[in-house]
């Protein structure tokens, strides 16, 4: 058995990974998605001045082939990184993968030379570059520094699949077959929206476009000066489809109560308008790319749940699968972590993928 098996989803707002060492004991590790280019001097100063003993994933920095990056919480809170939505997810995914592996190794005492079976989910558009990702990771994992410590591992196997694969492979009912069926997979993430079609178990077409939930948030942000994207995103999600004024109350910054109430009302109106317009744009795009005839639609991604009612109406003539059983399993097994961040529905894809990795026979290296 491989020393470490990882199923990894390099999401735009958080990196999520289910993993297990041997013997089998699955765990969940979450990291912020930010990546910041840093100088050797800046990380040296950070380490010299650091107080306390943070968890490895909260103090992650990488040195690889002469380049330095801070990743996750450290990048976001100490080096002022943003979400890098314009950058290639593939490029950032390599740095985040190195940080993830380094953190897991540090927390579990995994020695250098250990073997790793690494599975990754990528948007359909970047899935086409999976061989390049494999090359990046294979080259880097053989020798890099995590928080100044030398790390070196062997990539025993690399398994890359398009986002949604975990839902298709483990999110359908017992005995459900892909044969003789046309299945549409729709993943609505923060940066991208991906669609692909499986006909009799084979992907026949697919497309990704950068029209994820960030477009919605940017529209609101343009009408509410001064609100940071991550703060606004969290508030919009908490407010829900009915746009609860109470959930938005903390966004008001005026000291005068009446002016603060007016400010919150303005934000709420901006969200309502953006919500309606975003769905019009998204639904029109979906109509252009979804086949006229399909047997089942599998929906995933955090944004999709925000529009659950609209998706139900949109796919009214098709069996709609939200993979609720996967979400229930996550809530049962990882409740403290997922409830704290309201994450269970964002984890279903990578959790299904993890179960696929550990439940299938060991694939040939470099699948």
Describe the structure.
A five-stranded mixed β-sheet has the order 3-2-1-7-10, sandwiched between helices. The relative contact order is 0.14. It is 44% helix and 24% strand. Helix 3 (89-108) packs parallel to helix 5, helix 7 packs across helix 8 (229-239) and helix 13 packs across helix 14. The protein is an alpha/beta fold. The radius of gyration is 21 Å and the shape is globular. The protein folds into two domains: 4-165 and 326-359, 2-Layer Sandwich (Nucleotidyltransferase, domain 5), CATH 3.30.420; 176-322, ATPase, nucleotide binding domain (Nucleotidyltransferase, domain 5), CATH 3.30.420.
How does the overall form come out from the CA principal axes?
globular
Separate helix tally: 14
The CATH H-level superfamily of the largest domain is ATPase, nucleotide binding domain
CATH topology of the largest domain: Nucleotidyltransferase, domain 5
Q: Look at the structure and give the mean pLDDT.
A: 91
Number of strands: 15
Protein name: Actin-like protein N-terminal domain-containing protein
How is the secondary structure organized here?
Layout: E1 4-10, E2 14-21, E3 27-32, E4 35-37, H1 40-49, E5 60-64, E6 67-71, H2 73-77, H3 89-108, E7 115-122, H4 124-127, H5 130-141, E8 144-146, E9 149-151, E10 154-162, H6 165-170, E11 182-188, E12 193-199, E13 202-209, H7 213-222, H8 229-239, H9 245-248, H10 257-289, E14 296-300, H11 302-306, H12 308-314, E15 319-321, H13 324-341, H14 344-359
Parallel strand pairs: 1-7, 7-10, 11-14, 14-15
Antiparallel strand pairs: 1-2, 2-3, 4-6, 5-6, 5-8, 8-9, 11-12, 12-13
Helix pairs in contact: 3-5, 7-8, 7-10, 13-14
């Amino acid at each position: 058995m491989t020393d470490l098996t990882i199923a990894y989803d390099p999401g735009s707002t958080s990196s999520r990974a289910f993993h297990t060492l041997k013997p089998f004991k699955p765990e969940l590790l979450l990291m912020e998605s930010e990546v910041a280019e840093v100088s050797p001097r800046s990380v040296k100063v950070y380490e010299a001045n650091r107080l306390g003993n943070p968890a490895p994933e909260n103090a992650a920095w990488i040195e690889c082939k002469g380049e330095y990056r801070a990743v996750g919480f450290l990048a976001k809170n100490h080096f002022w990184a943003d979400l890098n939505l314009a950058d290639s997810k593939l490029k950032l995914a390599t740095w985040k993968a190195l940080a993830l592996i380094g953190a897991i190794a540090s927390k579990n005492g995994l020695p250098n030379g250990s073997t790793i079976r690494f599975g990754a989910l990528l948007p359909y558009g970047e899935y086409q570059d999976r061989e390049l990702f494999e090359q990046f990771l294979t080259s880097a994992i053989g020798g890099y520094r995590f928080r100044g410590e030398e790390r070196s591992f062997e990539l025993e196997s690399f398994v890359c699949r398009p986002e949604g694969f975990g839902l298709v492979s483990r999110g359908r009912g017992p005995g459900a077959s892909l044969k003789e069926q046309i299945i549409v997979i729709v993943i609505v993430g923060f940066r991208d929206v991906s669609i692909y079609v499986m006909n009799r178990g084979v992907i026949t077409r697919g497309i990704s476009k950068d029209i994820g939930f960030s477009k919605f948030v940017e529209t609101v942000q343009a009408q509410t000066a001064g609100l940071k994207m991550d703060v606004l995103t969290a508030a919009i999600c908490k407010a829900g489809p009915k746009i609860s004024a109470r959930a938005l109350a903390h966004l008001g910054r005026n000291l005068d109560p009446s002016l603060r109430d007016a400010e919150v009302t303005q934000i709420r109106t901006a969200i309502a308008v953006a919500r309606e317009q975003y769905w019009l744009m998204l639904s029109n795009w979906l109509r252009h790319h979804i086949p006229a005839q399909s047997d089942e639609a599998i929906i995933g991604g955090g944004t999709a749940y925000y529009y659950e009612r609209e998706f139900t109406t949109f796919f009214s003539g098709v069996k709609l699968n939200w993979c609720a059983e996967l979400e229930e399993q996550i809530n049962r097994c990882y409740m403290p972590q997922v409830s704290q961040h309201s994450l269970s529905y964002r984890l279903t894809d990578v959790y299904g993928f993890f179960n696929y990795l550990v439940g299938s026979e060991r694939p040939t290296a470099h699948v």
